[in-house]
């Protein structure tokens, strides 16, 4: 049975290949139809910087992501932040250290301005700090004018596997 990139990391792959494998394990797995599949399937990987450590995604706000006022729904943005800020951890992962993405311990999202339907959004995800068991990642959504519309702090914890041993 092949490894599920959602649960374990194949370090024979490049960082970009690891991120894409994780993304496809959520958006393209015929055995999975969770509520995060649709919003995540609308995003595209834009860039990776292992030296910063940052991963950038882009998407256009479609009507399916909007509330009744025609703006990106808070639940949609939280789902996107929850899943994709985690991908920044691939830039620091190595065998025995963040060799899987762990689980969410805390996710706080702040909304600064609406993101209307049709807006091209840039989502930058950056590892702030990472230890053996806990990490914090920051996410920022900017509109097509470069203005910050929403941001998050996302804390992750390792719950099993080699990374979790003290």
Shape: globular
The helix-strand sequence is: HHEEHEEEE
Major sheet summary line: 6 strands, antiparallel
Helix content: 10-25%
Radius of gyration: 15 Å
The rounded distance between the terminal residues' Cα atoms is 29 Å
- Strand residues, percent: 25-35%
Q: How many DSSP helices?
A: 3
What ranges have pLDDT less than 50 throughout 5 or more consecutive residues? Answer: none
Mean pLDDT: 93
Question: Which structural class do the helices and strands define?
Answer: alpha+beta
What characteristics describe this protein?
single chain; 166 residues; alpha+beta; 6-stranded antiparallel beta sheet; 3 helices; 6 strands
Brief overview:
The chain has 166 residues and is α+β, with helices and mostly antiparallel strands.
Describe this structure in words.
With 166 residues, the protein is α+β, with helices and mostly antiparallel strands. The chain has three helices and six strands; from the N terminus they run ααββαββββ. A six-stranded antiparallel sheet has the order 1-2-4-5-6-3, covered by helices on one side. The chain is globular and about 45 Å long.
């Amino acid at each position: 049975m092949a490894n599920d990139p959602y649960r374990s990391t194949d370090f024979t792959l490049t960082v970009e290949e690891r991120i894409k494998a994780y993304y496809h394990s959520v958006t393209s797995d015929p055995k999975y139809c969770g509520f995060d599949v649709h919003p995540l399937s609308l995003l595209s990987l834009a860039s990776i910087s292992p030296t910063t450590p940052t991963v950038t995604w882009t998407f256009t706000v479609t009507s399916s992501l909007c509330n009744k006022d025609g703006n990106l729904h808070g639940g949609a943005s939280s789902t996107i932040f929850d899943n994709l800020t985690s991908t920044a951890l691939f830039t620091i992962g190595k065998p025995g250290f963040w060799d899987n993405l762990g689980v969410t311990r805390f996710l706080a999202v702040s909304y600064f301005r609406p993101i209307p339907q049709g807006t091209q959004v840039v989502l930058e995800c950056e590892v702030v700090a990472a230890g053996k068991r806990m990490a914090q990642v920051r996410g920022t959504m900017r509109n097509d004018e470069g203005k910050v519309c929403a941001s998050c702090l996302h804390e992750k914890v390792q719950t099993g596997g080699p990374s979790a041993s003290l």
